[in-house]
Request: fold
Amino acid sequence: MLTRLREDIRSVFDRDPAARTAWEVLTCYPGMHALWIHRIAKTLWDLRLRWAGRFVSHVGRFLTGIEIHPGATVGRRVFIDHGMGVVIGQTAEIGDDCTLYHGVTLGGTSWNGGKRHPTLGKGVVIGAGAKILGPIFVGDGAKIGSNAVVVREVPAGATVVGVPGRVVEGDAVGAVRFAAYAVVQDCDDPYAKAIRTLVEQSQELDQTVHALRAKLDRLERQLDERKKAPDERAEGSDGPLRAVK
Reply:
């Protein structure tokens, strides 16, 4: 137990630069408190004391704002940062060294029994507000961008963004710099990049159309002036002839 406690404290220091002392981590990190309470609830659940497990889980939710079903499986050195609004379903499985930020949901997409929640490999990072839904597998070292909605398998080492979630980079393409609360600007979503290109082309087309319209208006004015000039000359030459007659 002491070994697990030291591991949990070390994982906080490794992943949160705001942590200052072990006492602060022990007393002021609800993510750690939620995991400790979950271990008690999980033990009761595995002993088939289901109501007791659910009640302990409910107390943990009340105290920390983090809801972890007692049936969920959580690995070692998992870190839940901030944590408010995190929901982890009954059949979810979280590998060692994973990191979850606030508002993350590991949820299901079906009311049927059996495996219906996601499985996370080792070292997975899930940004704030992301939703991982269904009995899918997220590979080791994958990164899920903030507010992404993932409903398909994620290969190891990949980075997923968007709604629905799309893989934008992976080991085969090259490493991606990743931020906990969003994907950085140089890691563009290909769909967003395509839309931005279309918008830029549309703006250029509008400018071209305006320029052509201005040229046409100028040519029409010049043509009208040329048509008026011969008529005026003709009227001026007929005047004396009429006078002579």
